[in-house]
Amino acid sequence: MITLAFIGLIGGLITGVSPCVLPMLPIIFFAGTTGRDESPSAGQPRAEGNVLVAEPATKRRRDRRPLKIIAGIIVSFSLFTLIGSVILSALGLPDDFLRWVGLIVLGLVGLGLIFPALGHLIERPFYRLPKINRQDSGAFVLGLGLGTLYVPCAGPVLAAITVAGATGQIGWRTVVLTVSFAIGAALPLLIFASAGSRIAQRVKAYRTRARGFRIAGGVVMLVLAVALAFNITDVIQRSLPSYTSGLEQKVAENKTVQGALAPAIGDASTELSKCTPGAAELAECGAAPAIRGTQKWFNTPGGKPVELSALKGKVVLVDFWAYSCINCQRAAPHLIAWDKAYRAAGLEIIGVHSPEFAFEKDAGNLGAAIRTEGIGYPVAQDNNLATWTAYRNQYWPARYLIDTQGVVRSIKFGEGSYAQTEDQLRKLLTQANPGAQLPAAVDGTVKADVAGKGLTPETYLGYSRSENFKGTGALVPRETPTAFTLNTYQPDDTFSLGGNWTVGTQSVTSTTGSQARLNFKAAKVYHVLSGHGTVTVSIPGQPDRTITVDGTPNAYKLVDVPTAQRSTMTLTYTPGISAFTYSFG
Q1: Residue 453 neighbours by CB under 8 Å, 6+ apart
Q2: Model pTM score
Q3: Distance of alpha carbon 15 from alpha carbon 177, whole angstroms
Q4: Distance (Å, rounded) from C-alpha 210 to C-alpha 358?
Q5: Is 44 within 8 Å of 55 (Cβ atoms)?
Q6: Per-residue pLDDT tens digits for 308-347
């Protein structure tokens, strides 16, 4: 538990000094300066009737306003990061409801600083609480509001917390990780709040012009509330270098972090934490867990299961994938090439299909995808993620290289490093049969797609994972169509909807006047669609294209150019088309 808390704390500290925190700093600083000291000054006379009585000199009371602001942030951040989506779904509220609540709170506090009468009115409901006094009763409430605005600041640890919350797998480990992360993220803010408080107490110029400083603080909060509401702060953040990305990458790839964040299922899977994902050198990571809980096998004699225990003496590559995942589609040619080149030399590739979406659980859809890709090696259907969990996996695609004794020797998450993986499997094949003549390396003959670095991330349109939705309308599941309005200006790496759509948990379905607007950076854009109809693709400076959609979910190519570029496209859908994801290459 101590290790988990430490990982959460470090991850939070990295987030707390990252560019995403910058819009918070002026708010926190001025909030720390706005506490009111209504008690008499120490040593000054006070009136009792018609007589002045000397006030005994006492030590100035410690200002607890910064602590209350930060406590509010920690409580709000932890609560809504873990169960915010569940609460919103149960109440039928839009995804951005909490963010707007935070902006309203920020705006009200700003107005309260400018207009003291309004400030007293806002704080009045809290006067009845026994442990909250008049001096800083609004501090905790302000912290609660800021916590909802702070949630989007993400890193690898917060990603694990968010996944746990989204899947309902919230145990004591997740709670410890969340609270420690929230504390770490809030500590840098406490420094700024405390600095504001010290200035308010010790600087004479502030004490003599407190009213002016309070008005200035209120104006700053109002300006930043408007800037946050219209995503103006994003422009500033994008112009700054991502100076914490290196630290985040080291945390994400650290084997201790991987072991702590991955689901622990039995002793065998715990041993996988011995491997550092992406390492160039082969390691010994313990026995490979059995492939379990499968529903169907493809490309095996009679559809019979493949037992890893029966493959002793062979080098095995276990590949986790999902057929609509564009990252997996780009990796497939490399695996197919290795299968053709090295099967005779003792390599056995096993695909484990662990679905992202419900439609990927259909055996017919999976079989069609296997034929389309030209996959000839065995594929197991892992609909319940039993094998995925046994391997502590967290990525699509992921490769696990196993030696002839059934020991995992290498792990690779995501695309890339194909030459490294081929070099590793060649070493294992040579160790197993030193006298064998291996064919020439094939990785260089496989056409490489555009690298994913700096490209728009995979974008989900359904309610459950629609993080990149930036538009007008409530993206909430309903049986009846919902009206949306396209953005005139679409922020980078986001999408909006227009017209009427029926919103589901994993997709949106077009009805009347249905459109979408997508801002992206990529050389290739794919769109997972199902149903029957057409989609018209409009990109400024290019002729419109019409794509015919027919049948079960499949990936349709929207853009294919030599180099990645930033652009905005508008798509017009005929009724009856279900849209799942945009993927980029």
Answers
A1: none
A2: 0.48
A3: 14
A4: 59
A5: yes
A6: 988 888 999 999 998 877 678 878 889 999 998 888 888 9
